[in-house]
Amino acid sequence: MYQPSATYRSAPFSSIADANILPAGQDNVPVIIETSHQRSVAFGLSPTATPDFTPAGKSDLSLLIEQNRLLHTHALPAMETLYQQIVNTHNMVILTDANGVIVHSLGDDDFLEKANRVALQPGVAWSEQSRGTNAIGTAITEKVPTLVHADQHYLAANHFLTCSAAPITDHRGNVIGVLDVSSDQRSFHKHTMALVRMSALMIENQLFSATFEDAITVHFHARPEFIGTLMEGIASFTPGGRFLSANKNGLFQLGLSFAALQSHTFSSLFGLPVSALYDHYRTASPGLLNLCMHSGVRVYGRAQLRLSNSVFQHGFAASTDQSDINAASAQVPAPASHAANAARRLSGLRYLRTGDPQLELVIEKVNKVLGRDIPILVMGETGTGKELLAQAIHNDSPRAMGPFIAVNCASIPETLIESELFGYEDGAFTGARKKGAIGKILQANGGTLFLDEIGDMPFGLQARLLRVLQERMVTPLGSSKSITVNVELICATNHNLRERMAKGLFREDLYYRLNGLVVKLPPLRERTDLDTVVKKILATEAPDTRYTVAPDILRMFHQHKWPGNFRQLTNLLRTAIVMAGDEHEICLRHMPDDFLDDIEMTQATAASASTDRMIAAGANLEEMEQSVILKSLDAHGGNVSATARALGVSRNTIYRKVPHLK
């Protein structure tokens, strides 16, 4: 279990900068650097040695990522956020395992090229034994955040670097990895270490929350606005209330050694019986807990009661009647795996920001209503990412630790959608499974219910949904009992609901109940961030290989109308990655035939329209021929041979028609 150091006990997390990790001149080398240099000499390393440039093979790297799956999953969002804060400053963000082997990295292209010269890339070990004094290896050895600047590096080859690294520890205090920012030593900034430490703590808190599935986890702080931030304390207890562990800030706020905490319970630490905690979360809208710690200090708290054997598993009870709770507990699905839970939390609104002003406006609006119990209606064509936005809203909301339940109202047969949504009791249907089934609405209790394609919901069912939203009560089919439910609602549709209301296909009263905040996702063809989107998709689909798209293919992407939007683009790139294999650039030969047919049709249509305009403007035949050739040249990236083949003429004809090419 994690045991806080004396330094940590004497200062809270807000004391970011430590004297021993600030850059120093030759006459003021920090002790941590001197000690590390002595170890480097003892390892038999020569300062002038050439670094080992051999990274792990592709299969070995995949195995490394799999062995560190939980760390990798929780670190990626923090790495992306950290990188966004330092982008275009000649930096890179690095994640390593407990041995200093780089698991993942991202950064500015110009600096990545420099970093590759000293093997600062995935699959390479940066322990002190292999690289001498460096921020990653020294942070692992010393178990403290470490800055190694310029010639403080032991190997001369690394003197151009400045590196800020913070160890990542598990709930037992064991170092399981390192988060590092490396850059050209001329780009050093004193705030970089603070950002790295904050990001490492964010990862540790996420890992801590994911570790204790069958437990009571309490988030607490003396100031309520700090709950849900890096400043909060987190402590976990068994379902019976026995202390399990706490994060760094939790240990600091509790003010006891880990050994002393072993004899404590939730009740002795926070002055509240566990039964009272359960009662608090049986209410429909539980607020913050008001707790009195053993020291007499009053704190505010929020608990997640993720218990595998009851419906409290997401922090809220589905019923105020204990018999109902016991009966329903057998129907609640088992908790998802750590990896699945982590994957659900990967997407946040900040990761959707790719530079498009229309999407930026959507995110700005959504951020203003998070946690305010305002229903959100997402409009947009098929494939524009409506469910991705809904998941991001959930992950950034106060209900992030609760379930996210998605229901596609268009894909479930009309005869089954009512039982899917509301559930049913034993005996409600002939041949149905014993003990009935809990519906999607109750599964979403304490979290977010996402109703996709709400415009296709059967008209008769819309009245029942409206009653649930107004009364906050669900009555399963075949039951006489209503169960209190507390959900955040997000709906999505590609229909114009006003038109469907006019046709009598959608209830007006339900429309205005859902119409809290309406946002519209732009189709891909109208967005200005296509290049960035392509890079993100490639990084997601092939995280272990750096793929790029050839310029002529990118031009085709910009010409295409993308009727299937992001779903179509993602499927196309996924196929192209498979076709490219070990080639790192996606080219024309990797494109599927149907896409190329669409592009030819688009170009032909554009050429025809251009010809019509030129005829109307009185252009002669020679001018029209030249226009067609120039458009084809542009489509083929200026390649004269490819243009000649596409037009069925010789290269000489191209040069004759367009003399300035010679």
Automatic annotation (TrEMBL):
Domain Sigma-54 factor interaction positions: 352-578
Domain of life of the native organism: Bacteria
Residues of the signal peptide: none
Pfam families, per database record: AAA_lid_14 (PF25601), GAF (PF01590), HTH_8 (PF02954), Sigma54_activat (PF00158)
Zinc in keyword set: no
Name of the protein: Sigma-54-dependent Fis family transcriptional regulator
Keyword Transcription regulation in record: yes
Annotated keywords: ATP-binding, DNA-binding, Nucleotide-binding, Transcription, Transcription regulation
